[in-house]
Specification:
Number of strands: 0
Number of domains: 2
Shape: globular
Number of helices: 8
Strand content: under 5%
Largest sheet: none
Radius of gyration: 23 Å
Length: 185
């Protein structure tokens, strides 16, 4: 029995391209991954965001077990999101339009915050490249020292030293009232 000409099972058929393979992988894993993330986060919108980010991170990475890599990546992203919730427990969906304007900072507070942010950005930009990279991975991406060491291919003790040095340099570079920033802690 012959195979129809439009099916890829015939002898002259080309192997499926990488985007086709990833598309099939995406279709087969999307719903279970979202359900898993929804159970972890308790929010379907956040689960959808994290799933999207996880797929984006593993898209071009070769892996023997791509599903395991996907779930590990998604779990780490979800844990980072939960950590951020602990830092800032108010989710954007918790704020209503009526209270947003009443709770906004005054104009002098906004100007002061912008100035402090500018000082902080400058101070971070002046850090040595290794210290800056470790600081950003630790404070923005919320990675552990071990995860940073694995990502950068350096020893955990080096990460700890660069992180401590970055914090010392920031404290020295910023005025006392600005060093209350989470980056300087």
């Amino acid at each position: 029995m012959e195979t129809p000409p439009d099916t890829p099972a015939g002898p002259s058929a080309s192997p499926p391209s990488e985007p086709d393979k990833f598309g099939a992988f995406y279709q087969s894993t999307l719903l279970p991954l979202r359900r898993y993330l929804h159970r972890l986060l308790g929010n379907s919108g956040e689960a959808e965001e994290i799933a999207h980010d996880a797929y984006a991170r593993i898209y071009q990475k070769p892996a023997r077990k791509p599903e395991a890599l996907l779930y590990t990546t998604a779990r780490r992203l979800a844990i980072n999101r939960l950590r951020r919730r602990d830092i800032s427990p108010v989710a954007p969906t918790d704020v209503t339009v009526d209270t947003a304007a009443a709770n906004s900072p005054s104009v002098p507070d906004q100007v002061s915050a912008r100035q402090e942010w500018g000082l902080l950005r400058t101070a971070i930009g002046d850090l040595p490249p290794g210290c800056r990279q470790v600081l950003i991975l630790r404070k923005v991406e919320l990675l552990s020292h071990r995860e940073i060491a694995e990502r950068l291919g350096i020893a955990v003790s080096t990460v700890e030293k660069q992180h401590a040095r970055a914090l010392r340099l920031l404290r020295a570079a910023l005025p006392a009232e600005t060093s209350d920033s989470p980056f300087a802690r």
